[in-house]
Fold:
Amino acid sequence: MERSRSMTLFPVVLLSCAAMFASAALAARTEPSGAEPAGEAPARAEPARAPAQGAGMGGAAATRPDPARDVEVVQVADGVHVFIHPDATESWPQGNTVVIEGDRGLVVVDSAYLPSTARADIGRIRKLTSKPVRYLLNTHWHYDHNLGNSVYLEAFPQAEIIAHEATRRIMNARVAGYPARVLAPDSQAQKDLKGMRETLASAKSPAGEPLSEEGRVRLERDVAAREAEMAEFKTFEYQAPTLTFDQDLTLYMGGREVQIRHLYRGNTPGDAFVYLPGEKILITGDLLVSPIPFAFNSYPSEWIRTLQALAALDARVIVSGHGAIQRDGAYLREVAALLESVVDQVRQATERGLRLDDARKAVDVGPFRLRMTGDDKEKNDIFNEVFLTPIVERAYQEATGQL
Ligand SMILES: [Zn+2]
Structure:
């Protein structure tokens, strides 16, 4: 998932000291887009944090990244385990990782954001089985799903890293240099960290309000997480996918069939998903993120077609890119219907000649929003920021021939 957050996403207790980060965070991760092929990569944002989706915690815990949370390991079938990760920092989540056991080796889906998380996952894998990782799939190019690639190859030199051709191309253009961009002296991440340290040192917000005890503890934790992230990035080694595919690739892992597919552009230009027909398990990458979908730089109509095809698989277990494991297709169908509603409404708005700002006002997704947010203010803010605002823009671009 990508970006981003604003002060509205901070809990009230932190609002005062968060204020200084708000505009910075919104601007954060924004980079010139010249490095990648036109139309393929996010034009305006690094894929930073989409806030609430982290790890299916539900309730208030799901409304803010929490690097202190423990990894959750869930077995969804014999020989199929999901690692639901803690967030890397207060601004970065980490995608779910799935480990699929075959007769002679393993398939791993996504390698997290922090190399240290990938390393810990490999330790967990070695406790589960002595079989080697033979394939690692990167479901898409966003950093929170593939920065651990080199750690896997270090541990399993014979492994192949699979990705869609477009994903590999964009990873080479953007992921390879990402840690260095974070570490640059004038980076937004450095400015954020400096600001957080100053707030801690003064125990006061930029507005001069005293920092609460809870705010101080949280800020200390956030600073430590950012420092750890940067320390890791100093020795980061980029590892590109070693094996690409265009539409489909099926791995026959002894008794288990692992279908890797790409249908259309959706969340990114090169989304891959995995289906295990024998077990009826679907692994979606960020084509599906719960509890609130994530829409920056997406391709709305093709995304709908993809989700409809995924729903038709009638999977028994759905592992989304972030968030809790789904045991039926209800949420998947809900997201597809929500996207359809937005695309329809935006198309009608453009047919009436409305400009983007007016089209925004014309779009009403009230019932969907209510079901996804429970009318919780913080979740509503997140819904607006990571879903509604970007999806209307993308649908508008699509309806006016700009995508
Ligand atoms: Zn993600």
